[in-house]
Amino acid sequence: MLAMDYRGPKRVRAVQKPMPEIKHPQDAIVRVLRTCICGSDLHLYNGNVPDTRVGSTFGHEFVGEIVEIGADVTKVKVGDRVLVPFNIACGECHFCRQGMFGNCHESNTESTAVGAIFGYSHTAGGYNGGQAEYARVPYANVGPTIIPPDMDLDDAVLLTDVIPTGYQAAEMAGIQTGDTVVVFGAGPIGIVAARCAWLFGAGRVIIIDQEDYRLEFACNYSYCEAYNFKEMNDPVLFIKKITDWMGADCVIDAVGAEAAGNTMQTVTGRKLLLQAGSATALHWAINSVKKGGVVSIVGVYGPTDNLVPIGNMMNKGLTIRGNQTSVKRLLPRLIEHVQNGVLNPKALITHRIPLEDVADGYRMFSAKLDNCIKTVLMPPTANQ
């Protein structure tokens, strides 16, 4: 089968690989119909995630058709079209039973913090991902969710990560009616977080980024104010100034480890890897939220330490929340929002690229070429 293959930092290509096989009675094999390149994949692509092994196949956002099931799979059958949450969860451990499917204690033997994730290095379990014609899906009675017959596959594939993560970012921010919400990062997750902030009662939503085309997209998709931090002397001072010097009620960090905007953070976090990525956006979040406010983190950072103003956090009485998204917990509500027209996931898709050209897709998405917001990869077998 054709699959994406990681060859080292900034080097990926499409190659022929062996077909995935059933390895456990609860496995299923899925013929991939849509798969995406995520902003989180760029951390792998750039070589910033530990234990990302040559030969790995990335891809944690995919939908497809079940073509084979293990002996113990009862919740889906061959022929079902399913969306596959990016988390791999057993559904039975202490954390899964609490709805914390992103923190499954059984699926990832490599870590006690995060559960397993498709195609996201051996720190996230070492599973191959869905940027391929076929993918092996463990715990097939838990994760795969049958796509409603009236749902577009383009909508469905964005329910595997982007929409739930943006929604959970707003949920974790604890937004109260009339709150001012600031989102750092106008990538797909930040754009969805800004859109979902209104669903929780926000009275004002502001998004900050450095790419004008993304800010323009966010204005139209998320109905929010948008500002370019490159036009400010100090983003924290700017936010204080436009909030009557109080600060925002809630701030969402949808950037994570690859944040720009501070030379020291860039050098120590992105160039020298002395900390787990650049914490620039997190600094701005902590310093621009009001006293007693909430900072919600969905931007991805590495497993080691970061330099953050923890003293300011304590002195301001802040609440900081973050987690990998519990996709399975959120799916029923989000499917309903899509079916009722409250959310329009497929409007985020700006580019479709054949899987054969996956290297071009990564290069374009990484360099933000051609006003790219969200890229979908189309496997050759998708139209069979």
UniProtKB/TrEMBL annotation:
Domain annotation Alcohol dehydrogenase-like C-terminal: ranges: 188-264
Coiled coil: none
Record keywords, A-Z: Metal-binding, Oxidoreductase, Zinc
Stored InterPro entries: ADH-like_C, ADH-like_N, ADH_Zn_CS, GroES-like_sf, NAD(P)-bd_dom_sf
UniProt xrefs under Pfam families: ADH_N, ADH_zinc_N
Zinc listed as a keyword: yes
Stretches assigned to the Alcohol dehydrogenase-like N-terminal domain: 25-144
CDD domains attached to this UniProt entry: FDH_like_1
SUPFAM superfamilies found in the cross-reference section: GroES-like, NAD(P)-binding Rossmann-fold domains
Cofactor: Zn(2+)
PANTHER family: DEHYDROGENASE, ZINC-CONTAINING, PUTATIVE (AFU_ORTHOLOGUE AFUA_2G02810)-RELATED, ZINC-TYPE ALCOHOL DEHYDROGENASE-LIKE
Family stated for the protein in its record: Belongs to the zinc-containing alcohol dehydrogenase family.
Protein name: Glutathione-dependent formaldehyde dehydrogenase
Organism: Hymenobacter yonginensis
